[in-house]
Amino acid sequence: MTKPIIGVLSSRTYHPSVGPMPVLAEYVNRTYCAGVEKGGGIPLIIPVTSDREQLTRLLSLCQGLLLPGGEDVDPCFYGEDPLPVLGTVDHETDQCWIWAVEIAVEKKLPIFGICRGLQLANVALGGSLWQDLSLKNKEHFLHYQHQNRASLLHEVSICPDSRLANLLGAEAIYTNTMHHQCAKEPGRGLTVTARTRDGIPEAMESADGQILLVQWHPEELLESEPRMLALFEDLVKRALQNL
Ligand SMILES: [Mn+2]
Questions:
Q1: pLDDT digit of tens for each residue in the chain (243 aa)?
Q2: Which end of the chain has the smaller Cβ count within 10 Å, N or C?
């Protein structure tokens, strides 16, 4: 059977080990591409660009879109000024990813967003973010684990009638957690479908099943919590309908 191509949006970083001076590089963590492959798809890394036409051409090669984790979203994209709790942002990367979500929605490509990917997709659809969890709930749990990324730390309660609960076959599941921000107002067509007990949104989805967003990192859990593979398989299955 032909495998669908899943566009994976890249981020930028200074790579320390390719020469005497750090070099600006486009990167995607290997685990995201491995997740797409294990789910039955072919990952295609899409570089950051300020050329929307280039992005449109690249996405026309894809049947689905994966938004990985990364840095904070520039709050100007949801109409806020930067607060002292804001982390690092990259305006050009955010603009590129927002275009990618708009193009994917227009082309009816299924979207799977992880961590920053959830936050960015929410903003691209007109939603907003808490710039730090402490602004949402002063008593929030630890959501940035210090140990191995594959460790399970907090329990997430999932809405029983959601697509997410159906895919995972569970209404509560332990996940890893590596974020200091979360969704505030949901974007157009998005509903929060999972939370931790401190009220932090941990997943969102669209009613038409085209968009699935999680705040944790399933790509790191494929061995420690094998049920997470279903999220990648779902993206690939929906992408197959565009072949
Ligand atoms: Mn969390």
A1: 799 999 999 999 998 877 788 899 999 999 999 999 999 999 999 999 999 999 999 999 999 999 999 999 999 999 999 999 999 999 999 999 999 999 999 999 999 999 999 999 999 999 999 999 999 999 999 999 999 999 999 999 999 999 999 999 999 999 999 999 999 999 999 999 999 999 999 999 999 999 999 999 999 999 999 999 999 999 999 999 999
A2: N
**CATH of range 5-240; options 3.40.50.880, 3.30.750.24, 3.20.20.70, 3.40.190.10:** 3.40.50.880
* Best CA proximity match to 205, nearest among 118, 97, 129, 98: 118
> Catalytic site residue 155?
no
- Catalytic annotation present for 62: no
Neighbours of ion ligand 1 (CB under 5 A): 143, 177
115 is catalytic: yes
From the candidates 140, 143, 217, 225, give the one annotated as an active-site residue. 217
Residue of 115, 140, 179, 202 marked active site: 115
Distance between CA atoms of residues 12 and 90, nearest Å: 9
**Phi, psi (degrees; rounded to nearest 5) at 155:** -95, 135
